Amino acid sequence: MELHLEFQYEGIRVRTDFSTRPPRLTPQHLESLWLSSADLPIPFTGLKELLLMKLTMREKDYPIVGELARRLKNVDERLLFSRSARDLLQIAKDNPHAVDQLIASRPLLSRIKDGEDAVAAALDAERRSFMKADEARLATYQKAAQPWESAWPALAPKISNLSLSQAHAVICDAAFPLLPTTL
């Protein structure tokens, strides 16, 4: 689940995203993320992690992904995540050996030799495949949640007058046999 919170602070628009289980981040990556932000005054997600979370089924996320990729310091990461044919061609021109090493990880890099239009077409196809993969991922969660969705109307009235901790315990007891712990 993802929650968005937007507010003004000293004249600046601040937008925050909260995610219960960020997609496309491995458990090891999540652990590393928590450890790296533990001592920060305000914990935040790094560029690469945010970029991975934004590879969704929403068309509007891909310009954001592209801008985040431009800010990555590591050339290999820029090659792996750029959404711009022009950027990819320039990075490849400046770092030809990096491209050869990354083709297995991002096959569209093999199209760089074919020019901007070929790379742009490959980027479009890649974006559509990311969108379809995210749609399939969410469908898996939706299917897994169906038993819980069916049980909720009967459960909701039972917890309406309970304290938060009591309601939490009742919800956990009811959810545990209905929801999978892995997908």
Topology overview:
Elements: E1 2-9, E2 12-19, H1 27-37, H2 47-53, H3 61-71, H4 75-81, H5 85-94, H6 96-102, H7 116-159, H8 164-175
Antiparallel strand pairs: 1-2
Helix pairs in contact: 2-3, 3-4, 5-6, 5-7, 7-8
Overall pLDDT, averaged? Answer: 90
Uncertain spans: none
Number of strands: 2
- What is the 3D form? elongated
Give the N-terminus to C-terminus distance in angstroms.
Answer: 15 Å
Q: What's the main sheet like?
A: 2 strands, antiparallel
Enumerate how many helices there are, as a single number: 8
Determine the strand fraction and express it as a percent band.
5-15%
**Roughly how many Å is the radius of gyration?**
21 Å
Question: How would you describe this structure to a colleague?
Answer:
The structure is a single chain. With 183 residues, the chain is mostly helical. It folds into 2 domains: 1-45, no CATH class; 52-148, no CATH class. The protein has helices at residues 27-37, 47-53, 61-71, 75-81, 85-94, 96-102, 116-159, 164-175; strands at 2-9, 12-19. A two-stranded antiparallel ribbon has the order 1-2. α2 (47-53) runs antiparallel to α3 (61-71) and α3 runs antiparallel to α4 (75-81). The longest helix is centred in the last third of the chain and has 44 residues, at 116-159. The model has no long low-confidence stretch (mean pLDDT 90).
Compact description:
This protein has 8 helices and 2 strands. It has 183 residues and is mostly helical.
Output the keywords:
single chain; 183 residues; mainly alpha; 2 domains; two-stranded antiparallel sheet; 60% helix
